[in-house]
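sorry for the late reply, my laptop died twice this morning and i had to redo everyting from scratch. anyway the thing you sent over, i finally got around to it. pasting the sequence first so we're on the same page, its 313 residues, then the predicted structure underneath. double check i copied it right bc i was rushing
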Amino acid sequence: MPVMEIKNLTKDYGHGRGVFDVSFDVEKGEVFGFLGPNGAGKTTTIRHIMGFSRPQQGYTYVNQRDSWSNYYINQKELGYLPGEIALPESLTGTQFIKMMAELRCITDSTHTDYLIGKFKLDPSGGLKRMSLGMKRKLAIVTAFMHDPDILVLDEPTSGLDPVMQEVFIDFIREEKARGKTILLSSHIFSEVDATCDRIAIIKDGKIVSTVVADDLRHSESKTFKLEFLTKDEFERFRQEVEYPGKLEVVSVKRHRNQAKIQVNDQDINHYFGTISEYQLKFMSEIKFTLEDYFMAFYDRNPQQEGGQNYAAH
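ok and here's the structure:
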């Protein structure tokens, strides 16, 4: 049975806001990525999994228990890191850690001390004056200090610097190796791609795709970019290859003498045999990425979103 099960979850806030008929599950020991931009419905779904909100339709289960009616039981087994952190500003970090340890009846601080060291947290200062990054580290420590079997992470690296983001990714890998079950909600492609076994993409409150991460990493289809040595070679290629349809030409840039070709693995020898008949300035493989896959559902070019333009290198 799945550790987390979300079935036909619907919460309609009006004006197209909310989640609509969302279904997915997370198996024991799996890192499940929940990918989408801000406002797509990730946090709403997580709030229902945590038992903070009651569904209008459908249900969410944690360890086969309804999230809403078993809120207090589930909390003992969950480690939750919210996207937005609200901490009591009158306390120091040390006082807050002590308070959370007492609430969770933690008497052995070994794991807490390990987390403090791993994330280089200095908890001695007052929360009111702590930087966003330090508050995020404190939230990480207190979310996982009871060493829960299930981690629910909502934009977990928000506010962390790049070095700490890598430390956090390393932490997720460690927890996975220990058999933890992890739901990772994020809009950061590298974070999801580096850690997740399966990935669900959410758009406008609806799941539009669920994919096995390895299927993306080891796609049977490859894309190559070619630049021909001369204009004449480029035009000969178009007449002899593109127009007769001998290879699948995805796009051409005539002013640069360039072409982009998509090839299935079983046709790779045919591709190289055909291309060897032409003089090339260069040839490179364009790696298919999670970002490419995601953008296909959002009908947006990665370059327009400030990301890398994979079709142009």
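The two ends are 45 Å apart (CA to CA).
thats about all i looked at so far, will dig more tmrw
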